[in-house]
Design goal:
The complex is a heterodimer of chains A (326) and B (323).
Chain A: E1 5-16, E2 19-32, E3 37-41, H1 48-54, E4 64-65, E5 70-73, E6 76-77, H2 83-89, E7 94-97, H3 101-104, H4 111-120, H5 127-140, H6 146-149, H7 159-171, E8 177-181, H8 189-206, E9 209-214, H9 217-220, E10 226-231, E11 234-240, H10 241-246, H11 251-259, H12 298-302, E12 308-311, E13 314-316, H13 319-322
Parallel strand pairs in A: 3-9, 3-10, 7-8, 8-9
Antiparallel strand pairs in A: 1-2, 1-4, 1-5, 5-6, 10-11, 11-13, 12-13
Helix pairs in contact in A: 4-5, 4-7, 5-7
Chain B: E1 6-15, E2 28-38, E3 43-47, H1 54-61, E4 69-74, E5 77-78, H2 84-91, E6 94-97, H3 101-104, H4 111-121, H5 127-140, H6 157-169, E7 175-179, H7 187-204, E8 207-212, H8 215-221, E9 224-229, E10 232-238, H9 239-244, H10 249-257, H11 299-303, E11 309-311, E12 314-316
Parallel strand pairs in B: 3-8, 3-9, 6-7, 7-8
Antiparallel strand pairs in B: 1-2, 1-4, 4-5, 9-10, 10-12, 11-12
Helix pairs in contact in B: 4-5, 4-6, 6-7
Classes of the chains: A alpha/beta (326), B alpha/beta (323).
């Protein structure tokens, strides 16, 4: 069975004057199957958001994709499509939800009209039919009194409701893949719980695949089938969520787990990762995590570790944890 | 028992809106009758969602915004009765660390100057010693003393937060309000700053009012926890017992909503209906009543506001918390 989405050797670079280009995403490959939830986890600056934007080809105009980069949706390469063909893919096949709904919504347009716009962009329907559908979508995303809310402006809605409106717009054309970039980060915890529950219900009802981009390992647990951990532009570990949570192998992933405050924790202190994430123009040679790594050996400083299987559905890019060549 | 370092009684902060060119609207009741104490060296965690009034409590306690009513006593003295000069010397012993250190630091001053400012104002170091004191403070928060000549934009978020902490510590406070001090930081850095705050507390016997929306973060540092909802405290007690057996329905929902990074453990998940009401128009009875799922919720809840009452090791504001 072919994957719904196959990303191969994704490399995103930004040319700079008088110096080498900046490469915030370097050689990222993964696939997503129908109906599956895949999480992309990492800290700020790891390249997770750019990876998400690259899929529907929404990168800034000065971004350059690598020669070997392929983004295959049902086997068709999105890298070779023209703008017109891409417009058809965006929204209809692939939809996105971002962290901050306020900056994605038009502040001077009623939300119902914005949803209707998303509907008429991809289907030849009357505006009356689009409006009826907008109300139905608002009902589906759990907005109380949808008949009245279609006439509201974004500022009249709470953060949680705005995010639901964004989700309604994303669902308007029944996409095969939803890319959700930090969809609950701006929301309060109790509203976050509502939103994640809703996302799950909708995914199951529609058989839609979800790429969940987040910094929070906590929301991934129990929700994603598979998980990829990114650090400094590369995937350092990936695998089935259960396997990876049971035995994280990469020192960075282990460090992340040891850094998370937990409710059930003992009185012991957290064990932080020393240092901080370097900016993309200061990424070190070899394994990019080596300056912060407790387990680093000489080889880590010069030679980049490839991603290797260490178990069924569990891959890691580390000279020490991978045991490659030992 | 010795008198607490800080005691807050019936703190109220209402904001008026409109009235000049627009019609006057009812006041926004950001904080509506909050009382607690903090002992020397103790950390009280103040947890709640956005709009619960937790940051307003922190600012009102320091009189950065004078409260509408209520009494704040620090070292036994009512802050409202102090004259300006006494208030200034008292301020030295109560400091604040903000969520966003970039917004709190002057971008055009070196971080050394920013840290030195309090020392100069309160005449805590002579001109000759100033450089040494700043270097000491930077090293105490885990920064290299040679960074003193750099500007805020040259630092990462975690390093900036360390500067913010050094600045607060410079004047040797006994009490520090930490307002979401780690929520803007990456997880790997968040743990570093939390550990630093713990080290400093132990070394300097600091008392913290630790304000955060994240219960898991709060349980790392707090001895006691106060849960706020819509301007009032709904539950107050020892951190461990509130997190393991929350009694107020809102605390229960908050605990269950904390994302758990362990897929093997299945906690019961309570998903609340709706969202918090506006603090400009709070419901008449219990503020949580419209979203409450307690099996005994009844007309009393929507008519009569429950007062905090002691149940076992804690105080709970719920008519039916003991059933």
């Amino acid at each position: 069975m072919t994957a719904l989405l196959e990303v191969q050797n994704l490399r995103i670079s930004f040319p700079r004057r008088d110096t080498t280009p900046l490469v915030p995403v370097d050689d990222v490959s993964f696939e997503i199957h129908r109906g599956e939830v895949v999480a992309l986890v990492g800290e700020s600056g790891c390249g997770k958001t750019l990876t998400g934007l690259a899929i529907p080809r929404l990168l800034p105009a000065n971004a350059v994709l690598g020669d070997r980069s392929r983004i295959l949706l049902n086997g068709a390469d999105l890298c070779s499509l023209n703008e017109r063909a891409l417009r058809d893919v965006r929204g209809r096949r692939i939809a996105m939800v971002f962290q901050d709904p306020m900056s994605s919504l038009n502040p001077v347009m009623r939300v119902g009209a914005q949803i209707a716009e998303a509907i008429t962009a991809h289907a030849r329907v009357s505006s009356a039919a689009a409006c009826t559908r907008a109300v139905a979508l608002l009902t589906e995303v759990g907005i109380a009194d949808p008949g009245a809310r279609v006439d509201a402006y974004p500022h009249q809605l709470s953060g949680g409701m705005r995010q639901r409106v964004m989700l309604a717009m994303a669902l308007a054309s029944e996409p095969d893949l939803l890319i959700a970039d930090e969809p609950t980060t701006a929301l309060d915890v109790t509203v976050q719980a509502q939103m994640l529950e809703l996302l799950d219900t909708l995914r199951q009802a529609r058989g839609m695949a979800v790429l969940l981009i987040t910094h929070d390992l906590g929301i991934v647990a129990g929700r994603a089938n598979r998980l990829m951990v990114m650090y400094a532009g590369r995937v350092v570990e990936s695998g089935a969520t259960a396997a990876l949570f049971a035995a994280p192998a990469h020192p960075y992933t282990r460090g992340l787990f040891a850094s998370i405050p937990r409710l059930e924790a003992s009185t012991e202190r957290l064990t932080p990762i020393p240092g901080s994430v370097p900016p993309p123009d200061q990424w070190p040679s070899g394994c990019r995590f080596h300056p912060r790594c407790q387990a680093a050996i000489a080889r880590c400083t010069v030679e980049r570790p490839g991603i290797e299987a260490i178990g069924p559905e569990h891959d890691v890019a580390c000279w020490v944890a991978g045991g490659v060549g030992e | 028992m010795t008198a607490p370092l800080l005691s807050v009684e019936g703190l109220v902060k209402h904001y008026l809106s409109g009235g000049f060119l627009s019609r006057a609207t009812p006041p926004v009741k950001a904080v509506d009758g909050v009382s607690f104490t903090i002992a020397a060296g103790e950390t009280l965690g103040l947890v709640g969602e956005s709009g619960s009034g937790k940051s307003t409590v922190g600012r009102a306690v320091l009189r950065l915004e004078p409260p509408t009513s209520g009494v704040v006593r620090f070292e036994g003295k009512d802050l409202a009765t102090l004259d300006a000069a006494t208030m200034r010397t008292t301020r030295r012993r109560m400091q604040i660390v903000f969520q966003d250190p970039l917004g709190a630091l002057n971008p055009r001053r070196t971080i050394g100057d920013s840290v030195a400012e309090g020392l100069i104002i309160h005449q805590l170091a002579s001109k000759r010693d100033l450089g040494d004191r700043v270097a000491q403070l930077l090293e105490e928060v885990g920064l290299d003393a040679s960074y003193a000549g750099r500007y805020p934009h040259e630092f990462s978020g975690g390093q900036r937060q360390r500067v913010g902490i050094a600045r607060a510590l410079a004047v040797e406070p006994r009490f520090v309000v930490c307002d979401e001090p780690v929520s803007a930081l990456d997880v790997s850095v968040q743990a570093q700053v939390l550990n630093l705050l713990l080290d400093l507390r132990d070394r300097r016997q600091l008392a913290y009012l630790f304000i955060a929306h994240d219960l898991a973060v709060v349980q790392q540092v707090a001895h006691r926890v106060a849960v706020m909802y819509l301007g009032t405290i709904v539950e107050l007690g020892p951190a461990r017992s509130i997190i393991s057996t929350p009694r107020h329905p809102y605390s229960q929902a908050l605990v269950s909503a904390v994302p758990d990074p362990d897929p093997a453990r299945h906690r019961s998940r309570i998903v609340l209906e709706g969202e918090p009401p506006s603090p400009a128009a709070p419901p008449p009875g219990c503020p949580f009543a419209p979203r409450c799922f307690h099996p005994r919720r009844d007309t009393r809840c929507s008519a009569e506001r429950p007062a905090l009452r002691t149940i076992g090791d804690r105080d709970v504001a719920c008519h039916y918390a003991d059933s």
